Amino acid sequence: MNPSDYHCGDCGGNISESDLLCPTCGATLEWPDAKQADDSKIPIEHTHFVRAFRSGRLWEIDMARDELKNADIPFFVREENLSGLSLAFPAIPAPGIGVTWSILVPESFVDKAKEALTSLPIEVDKQPGFWDFTTDSKVQRGLKIFIWTMLIFYGYMIFGRMIYGLFAGLLRGIFRH
Question: Is the dihedral of CA 39, 44, 50, 55 positive or negative?
Fold first, then answer.
């Protein structure tokens, strides 16, 4: 599945140049009368959006959103997870393992957006990792211990019962003869 080059200005959903209504939210798409992103005939709501910043840390996304609003740069935020699913920014975002947020801006505003974001105490061009939602190594260590504990527990529950059933059946067969 290839993502569309155009996104709805209301919800961020994928649209095509032939759409009159957004297939995701149903918003009316008025191509010729909208504000232009550049000298082209494509309005800013339907221009090609490019990722200007990506992070798993919610406070960094909030700082970047505020900075872009102050600089009057059009943008929208999208949540992404490990499965590759991209969603509109939720009303109550929840940071976690493998969850990141991307700020997308029209292609003609990328340089201006990156310039505005450089004044913030964040790394604009970094690629967030699996554990990027926290900087505390104790949180990461605790979650790793929890995950390994659950894997061992469920592994024992599944495979331990299978092995026990196998050996119990063999022992019953041996002692019956």
Answer: positive
Within 10 Å of residue 12's Cβ, how many Cβ atoms?
Answer: 20
- Say how far apart CA 77 and CA 51 lie, in whole Å: 9
Q: Determine contact, residues 109/49, Cβ cutoff 8 Å.
A: no
The model's pTM is 0.54
**Whole-angstrom Cα distance, residue 76 to residue 171?**
65
CB 54 within 8 A of CB 91: no
Cβ–Cβ < 8 Å for 109, 38: no
Q: Residue 29 burial (CB < 10 Å; 0-12/13-18/19+)?
A: buried
Give the other-Cβ count within 10 Å of 109's Cβ.
23
| Residue with token string 């929208």 | 76
Number of C-beta neighbours around residue 35 at 10 A: 9
Tens digit of each residue's pLDDT (9 = 90 or more) over 91-124: 777 777 778 888 999 888 888 998 888 888 887 7
CA 48 to mean position of chain CA atoms:
18
